[in-house]
């Protein structure tokens, strides 16, 4: 049994009232670990530790912070197998993918370590001689990072990287579903040389603990990834103190497959984005609009991909494509969405059920599923399914496809498959989302800003620009 404790002021400690909660395996329902359930006292200690550490960390030079961060990530890489195993155990992601997530999270922090030394201010020409004007940036202070369970380490690294490089300190609150790997990641960074108090990790029940943290008066910025409903609540909690807030929220990502698309490529990308990690990704393909002339060909290729996918316990078989879904509730929502679509006349092409066989009986497994004949009133076409389901609808006029793609309140990622440059430009400009992927599914790269439009977000993550989400701007004007 794995026990994970709070990380406060560089120390691994129990909750102040010794409270714990259990963490379950999504592959077999067994208890895999116990995590500390932080109290208000622990929150106060964690924020106080981060505040104390901020005084020194913010005064380090950006060059020194880069050296410290790179040394720490080198250490984390040496423990990627161990941390990845915890992720696979509690989240269900196959071991190879979990270990890959830990390594790529280190790359992300390194990207920001290098960007930290390029936070350049400006010197401005002034309206009157004798005036001198320059603009400079200062770290905001103690930040809180709140993360979901689907990419439990990567989505922390997206926040830790820019925050720490900018000179902020951070209290991390992982999802209660995945406390083990997130705490181990924080612990490894500290072992690798991040000074005490610069990173704190507090675990426990989401709404209560999250709410205590975001309302704490010494917390100056909150960065959260999660559902749109929780994001909106969190923004309200931060409003009275006018905190800086960054939210990366849910998605309902459309993919438009035009008549001239490379169908092999489109099917490969849609299957990868729709089914990978059990479809539990904000950038998962939630709806496909295929030109009527290629609809059947695309569906047949998608079915081939779905049926070739391997499912299993990614601990015992690290190279399976998909493990179980992370929670029983997540699978129940998928089942409800599929039942609703079928009741409203959709056609099941493949999947649509749990896999048979004893090895799957105790886990939250669900087969990769494809439906056709889907219509806008079906739940899966207007609510985030967050599961391995790809619904496909046919279109005749590309403008109609763009209008349908834009017909939800979300605006995270839109996928477009075409070989025509004019269509590429017209559709890319018309699609209402912060990211457009044309002929590929490599959504998140360190250099690309990731901004959710509409219900998908508030502010942005990734890219050099996200460092400025952790900085305050100061204009200094002198009259000499
Ligand atoms: P969730 O909204 O239930 O929880 C997210 C985090 O918020 C968790 O750590 C949770 O404990 C915490 N939380 C819950 N209530 C809170 C409150 N009142 N105050 C403060 N914190 C609170 O989301 P989830 O189920 O963990 O993750 C799935 C969701 O995350 C999906 O909607 C998915 O689209 C979204 N997501 C978005 C992105 C992105 O980059 N846009 C990436 C991954 C996941």
Main features:
single chain; 480 residues; alpha/beta; 7-stranded mixed beta sheet; 6-stranded mixed beta sheet; 25 strands
Rg, nearest Å? 23 Å
Mean pLDDT: 97
User: Terminal Cα separation, in Å?
Assistant: 67 Å
Bound molecules: nicotinamide-adenine-dinucleotide
Which regions are unreliable across 5 or more consecutive residues at pLDDT < 50? none
The biggest beta sheet reads: 7 strands, mixed
- In DSSP terms (H or I, runs of 4 or more residues), the helix count works out at 13
The residue fraction in helices comes out at 25-40%
Count of strand segments = 25
Class by helix and strand content?
A: alpha/beta
Biggest sheet: strand arrangement: 15-16-17-14-13-19-20
Outline type: globular
Strand content: 15-25%
Give a structural overview.
It is a single chain. The strands form 7 sheets. This protein has a 7-stranded mixed β-sheet with strand order 15-16-17-14-13-19-20, sandwiched between helices. Strands 10-9-8-11-12-23 form a 6-stranded mixed β-sheet, with helices on both faces. By secondary structure, the protein is an alpha/beta fold. 38% of the residues lie in helices and 23% in strands. The chain has 13 helices and 25 strands. Bound molecules: nicotinamide-adenine-dinucleotide. Nicotinamide-adenine-dinucleotide (NAD) binds next to helix 7, strand 11 and helix 8.
Brief digest:
By secondary structure, the chain is α/β, with parallel strands linked by helices. Helices cover 38% and strands 23% of the residues.
Secondary-structure blueprint of this entry?
Blueprint: E1 2-4, E2 6-8, E3 11-13, E4 20-24, E5 31-36, H1 40-57, H2 62-78, H3 80-91, H4 95-116, E6 122-124, E7 131-139, E8 142-146, H5 154-166, E9 169-173, H6 179-191, E10 199-201, H7 206-215, E11 219-225, H8 228-238, E12 244-248, E13 253-257, H9 263-275, E14 285-291, H10 292-308, H11 328-343, E15 347-350, E16 369-372, E17 389-395, H12 398-405, E18 410-411, E19 413-417, H13 421-430, E20 435-438, E21 450-451, E22 453-454, E23 457-458, E24 460-461, E25 471-479
Parallel strand pairs: 1-5, 8-9, 8-11, 9-10, 11-12, 13-14, 13-19, 14-17, 16-17, 19-20
Antiparallel strand pairs: 2-3, 4-5, 6-7, 7-25, 12-23, 15-16, 18-22, 21-24
Helix pairs in contact: 2-4, 2-6, 3-4, 3-6, 4-5, 9-10
The structure holds nicotinamide-adenine-dinucleotide (NAD).
Nicotinamide-adenine-dinucleotide binds next to helix 7, strand 11 and helix 8.
């Amino acid at each position: 049994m794995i026990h994970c404790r709070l990380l406060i002021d560089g120390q691994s400690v129990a909750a102040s009232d010794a409270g714990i909660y259990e963490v379950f395996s999504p592959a077999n329902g067994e208890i895999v670990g116990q995590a500390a359930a932080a109290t208000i006292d622990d929150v106060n200690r964690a924020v106080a530790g981060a505040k104390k550490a901020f005084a020194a960390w913010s005064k380090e030079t950006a060059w020194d912070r880069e050296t410290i961060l790179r040394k720490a990530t080198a250490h984390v890489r040496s423990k990627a197998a161990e941390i990845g195993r915890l992720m696979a155990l509690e989240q269900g992601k196959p071991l190879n993918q979990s270990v890959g997530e830990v390594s790529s999270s280190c790359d992300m922090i390194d990207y920001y370590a290098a960007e930290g030394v390029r936070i350049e201010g400006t010197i401005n020409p002034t309206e009157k001689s004798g005036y001198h004007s320059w603009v400079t940036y200062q770290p905001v202070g103690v930040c809180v990072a709140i993360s979901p369970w689907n990419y439990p380490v990567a989505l922390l690294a997206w926040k830790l990287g820019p925050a720490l490089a900018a000179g902020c300190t951070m209290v991390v609150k992982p999802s209660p579903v995945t406390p083990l790997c997130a705490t181990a990641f924080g612990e490894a960074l500290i072992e690798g040389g991040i000074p005490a108090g610069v990173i704190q990790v507090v675990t426990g029940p989401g709404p209560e603990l999250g709410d205590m943290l975001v309302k704490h008066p010494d917390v100056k910025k909150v960065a959260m990834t999660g559902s749109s409903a929780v994001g909106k609540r969190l923004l309200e909690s931060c409003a009275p103190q006018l905190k800086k807030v960054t939210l990366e929220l849910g998605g309902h990502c459309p993919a438009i497959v035009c008549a001239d698309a490379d169908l092999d490529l489109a099917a490969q990308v849609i299957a990868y984005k729709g089914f990978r990690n059990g479809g539990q990704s904000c950038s998962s393909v939630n709806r496909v609009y295929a030109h009527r002339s290629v609809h059947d060909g695309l569906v047949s290729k998608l079915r081939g991909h779905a049926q070739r996918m391997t499912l299993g316990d990614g601990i015992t078989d690290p190279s399976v494509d998909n493990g179980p879904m992370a929670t029983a509730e997540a699978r129940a929502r998928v089942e409800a969405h599929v039942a609703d679509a079928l009741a409203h006349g959709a056609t099941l092409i493949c999947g649509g059920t749990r896999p048979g066989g004893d090895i799957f009986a105790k886990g939250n497994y669900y087969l990769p599923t494809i439906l056709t004949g889907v219509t806008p009133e079906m739940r899966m076409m207007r609510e985030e399914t967050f599961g391995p389901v790809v619904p496909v609808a046919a279109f005749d006029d590309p403008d109609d496809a763009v209008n349908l793609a834009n017909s939800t309140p979300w605006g995270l990622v839109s996928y477009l498959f075409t070989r025509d440059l004019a269509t590429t430009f017209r559709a890319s400009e018309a699609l209402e989302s912060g990211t457009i992927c044309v002929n590929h599914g490599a959504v998140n790269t360190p250099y690309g800003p990731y901004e959710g439009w509409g219900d998908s977000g508030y502010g942005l993550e990734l890219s050099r620009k996200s460092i400025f989400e952790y900085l305050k701007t100061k204009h200094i004007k002198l009259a000499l």
